[in-house]
Amino acid sequence: MHSELIKLEETFKPSILAKIDDPLFAQYQIELWMKRDDLLHRVISGNKWRKLKYCLDNALSTGADTIISMGGAYSNHLHALAYAAKVMGLKTLGFIRGERPEMLTPTLSDIQNWGMELKFVSRSNYRLLRQYKGCDDLPGLIPGQYWLPEGGAQVLALKGVRELVNEIDVAYDIICAPCGTGATLAGIIDAVPEQKSVLGFAALKNAGFLQSDVESLLPQPCSNWQINLDYHFGGFATTTTELMAFIADFEFKTGIPLEPVYTGKMMYALYDLIEKRSFKPGQRIIAIHTGGLQGKRGFTV
Ligand SMILES: *Cc1c(COP(=O)(O)O)cnc(C)c1O
User: Fold this and answer.
1) Are residues 250 and 277 in the same domain?
2) Is 178 helix (H, G, I), strand (E, B) or coil?
3) What is the number of the ligand 1 atom nearest to the C-alpha of 182?
4) Segment 231-283, tens digit of pLDDT
């Protein structure tokens, strides 16, 4: 790994694994643990670092000095990328979905302050950018520019996610993560032994595409995983008072902060599925806290 990355990683904290104490779980004989990737770094969001790490290392190997990527106005990916790249001395350019808002969101304001050049693109053009999956696929790239697809979802991202799984030092039956692009889930599937199961929770509505997207990222076919599409709460950036109340209650009971786009939905789903006896008594579940708390700023129901 390049020294810029090693130096940056020295500023990271361990991602602890903690059992969640709730009498409800004892009642159903389930253990729920959380791997706290949200604690990894003060700024860089958990799973975004896992996904970025080896992509940035690869970018340095190719001699790139500029990373180009894409995201929405609350993008955890662009936020993590802009900060990490600034510390490493790389330039960044972000294609932002939609028109420039009169007032930048806290996320966009941060990334602009960290030196990312913002280019606002129409929703239809934004969708077109999604077809460019490989690091040199974006038309018009010049030498020194490196393309990262939406959410940092590419095969190299799996390598960093595998490290997360390998850090888990307790026995478990099921491992869970929220899904946007599904790259984090693919990394987990790739790392987990066959006899354990992997369960993803889609944050988007109509996320049936996730099945084949995850399959296409996996180096070999696996059958020990599934993606639950039932807990999107109306879609990607939407939420309900019920979800917000669950998050507030969970934070109060456990002291663990959640956000409504990804981790809140997953935890709501897990509580709901446990109460519906979807898991066998005696099972130990590990939920990955993927971070993303910066995106919560300015989020109202
Ligand atoms: C981006 C993100 C995800 C989704 O990750 P994918 O690899 O795109 O599926 C999950 N949780 C949080 C907090 C995120 O920021």
Assistant:
1) yes
2) strand
3) 9
4) 999 998 889 999 999 999 999 999 999 999 999 999 999 999 999 999 999 99
